[in-house]
Amino acid sequence: xxxxxxxxxxxxxxxxxxxxxxxxxxxxxxxxxxxxxxxxxxxxxxxxxxxxxxxxxxxxxxxxxxxxxxxxxxxxxxxxxxxxxxxxxxxxxxxxxxxxxxxxxxxxxxxxxxxxxxxxxxxxxxxxxxxxxxxxxxxxxxxxxxxxxxxxxxxxxxxxxxxxxxxxxxxxxxxxxxxxxxxxxxxxxxxxxxxxxxxxxxxxxxxxxxxxxxxxxxxxxxxxxxxxxxxxxxxxxxxxxxxxxxxxxxxxxxxxxxxxxxxxxxxxxxxxxxxxxxxxxxxxxxxxxxxxxxxxxxxxxxxxxxxxxxxxxxxxxxxxxxxxxxxxxxxxxxxxxxxxxxxxxxxxxxxxxxxxxxxxxxxxxxxxxxxxxxxxxxxxxxxxxxxxxxxxxxxxxxxxxxxxxxxxxxxxxxxxxxxxxxxxxxxxxxxxxxxxxxxxxxxxxxxxxxxxxxxxxxxxxxxxxxxxxxxxxxxxxxxxxxxxxxxxxxxxxxxxxxxxxxxxxxxxxxxxxxxxxxxxxxxxxxxxxxxxxxxxxxxxxxxxxxxxx
Length: 549
What we know:
Blueprint: H1 3-17, E1 35-40, E2 43-47, E3 64-73, E4 78-83, E5 86-91, E6 112-121, E7 124-128, H2 132-141, E8 149-157, E9 161-165, E10 170-174, E11 195-204, E12 219-223, E13 235-251, H3 259-269, H4 274-281, H5 285-297, E14 301-302, E15 305-306, H6 308-325, E16 329-333, E17 342-343, H7 365-372, H8 381-388, H9 391-401, E18 406-412, E19 419-426, H10 427-437, E20 438-440, E21 457-464, E22 473-476, E23 481-485, E24 490-497, E25 531-540
Parallel strand pairs: 5-7, 10-12
Antiparallel strand pairs: 1-2, 3-4, 3-6, 4-5, 6-7, 8-9, 8-11, 9-10, 11-12, 13-16, 13-18, 13-19, 14-15, 16-17, 20-23, 21-22, 21-25, 22-23, 24-25
Helix pairs in contact: 3-5, 8-9
């Protein structure tokens, strides 16, 4: 006899005799059941029974019943539960959500319990008492969607997340979604029992939870910081090295067509005969015949007349020349924030006060090289939109780019390799990059959120103690903060020595260098006096700044 047949034989015998096996069974009590039905597979919903007693004929997996423990079998480690005329078996693993060795450790005959149906078997229903909370949670989560707002009480503070107890469900808030500033632990922003509001970002509720216990633990994932406005960052002036560039148009010319061949082609397009070209240029007949042969081989001219392809090439040469008479110019500040990297040519005037004795301001050589290599389809759309300026400029540039006979690319403009520009940038952007490669040498300044875009290249001053008794620190002059590098995070290259003279003004924030542990400076190092001795070019090993949009 199989285990199932043996089980229900025992149950039927116990029901008919109404006497306990081994003195452990007590008479059952009638119960009126309130049950929940699924709105989709494995998702409970509330359903009201039409009668005072529950029927087993219209029950479904996921329904929740309120009933009584009808029988406890300690030997075979199961219990029977009853709600009206519906009976079900609950095995040991589904009796409690904690580990137990026998059913009697959790329930006794006659106890009132809630249970949820797991599956129907030809021999009867299998249910779970431990999964009732899961079913109730899924009821509460059924109508929740991404973007909904929910309020709850902080019930747990873990290392990497906080847990909110909301109305019928738990919401997990990852550490990065608690606040707009950097947090090492949720307790830096939240307290147990505190009320908090969060925005739902995801609902975690796998469908196979009835059969797979690992799929239980349904919950919502949310963001507290999404319900709070991002703190505004103060703006600070910062110097950058900008590369002057211009857009340049070049016609697509066959390789064999040099300047002489193109001159002949353009002259023929103006309906000048070959004899007059020979007289005007003084070219010998052999040279003109060679030019005519090249034009014929390339399909540009025949019998002294330009072909359609030749006239298209002449028109492309004219369009490129017209565009290059007034090219679109600009400055590219490679190390600046993404939204400020592209500047008009007159922005150089803002850097005229940059001291001549100072080294080249912050720049990203690799990014600048990549920028200047862009051409044709590889040229970013954001660049073209900003370069074109008004609607007429955009139409002009779009028409030129759509011409298959013309190439448009970037090239350096003028003789100067770079120009200094001074831009107002968010202080949080500078601090985000500094925190990525350094530790503060004094009182820590504001630490932006880990998703905050940050600077990757700095020009800093190396600060050393007069007697060399300690490791040097580095002053970022725009934020007036002192730092010590993290191991392997900041690549520091010393450059020009710092010489304080009347002709060489001190950088921003250098007029009041911190003098010791009793200084009033907000970010002063708790150490002896330090003096600047050299400029340093700094690159963060893992840049946090992104490409321009």
